Known about the structure:
Elements: E1 9-11, E2 16-18, E3 34-36, E4 41-43, E5 46-49, E6 54-57, E7 62-64, E8 67-70, E9 73-76, E10 81-82, E11 87-89, H1 98-108, E12 125-127, E13 132-133, E14 138-139, E15 144-145, E16 150-151, E17 156-157, E18 165-168, E19 173-177
Parallel strand pairs: 1-3, 2-4, 3-6, 4-7, 5-8, 6-9, 7-10, 8-11, 9-12, 10-13, 11-14, 12-15, 13-16, 14-17, 16-18
Antiparallel strand pairs: 18-19
Amino acid sequence: MDGELPPNVRIGAGSVITGDFAFKRFYAEGAEALIIGGRCVLDGVQFGVGRQGRLHIGDCCYFTNAVLLAELEVRIGSNVVIGWNVTIADTDFHPVEPDARVQDAIACSPGGSGRERPPIPRRPVFIDDDVWIGPNAAILKGVRVGAGAFIEPGALVTEDVPAGARVLGNPAKVVGDA
């Protein structure tokens, strides 16, 4: 990466971050909000980390063109591979209820005049070691992906994935062993 890392980012020896948009939506205010282990390649990854968000990535990971969204916490273990266009998010980023969505749209609009946004549920995401996540998969709030799991391309993961399981589909279901 060309340029300076944000002051609350720690990156391990031998790790590389590439891409012009890596920190475009990095608003984290906490100390060590983004920690990346050693010997990782994060090619074209976007770190969308909110003011209170934390994102931790282990050692020896390879991610390409993934979007990692943390308003609360996302933890990714070591030896994890993430394919292109994967999204991992610990929140919906907007209310689900129709009335609250309207209130949120008004609060976020230029005419919102400083209105408070309605509460938006956030739940941490945990991805254990040795996980493979195929292209175009999405892993949503509150999910834990167990060690050695295999997430097939295009899977929409809304529930925990057992260690060593292979999942696919929308919503993702266990179809065998990794």
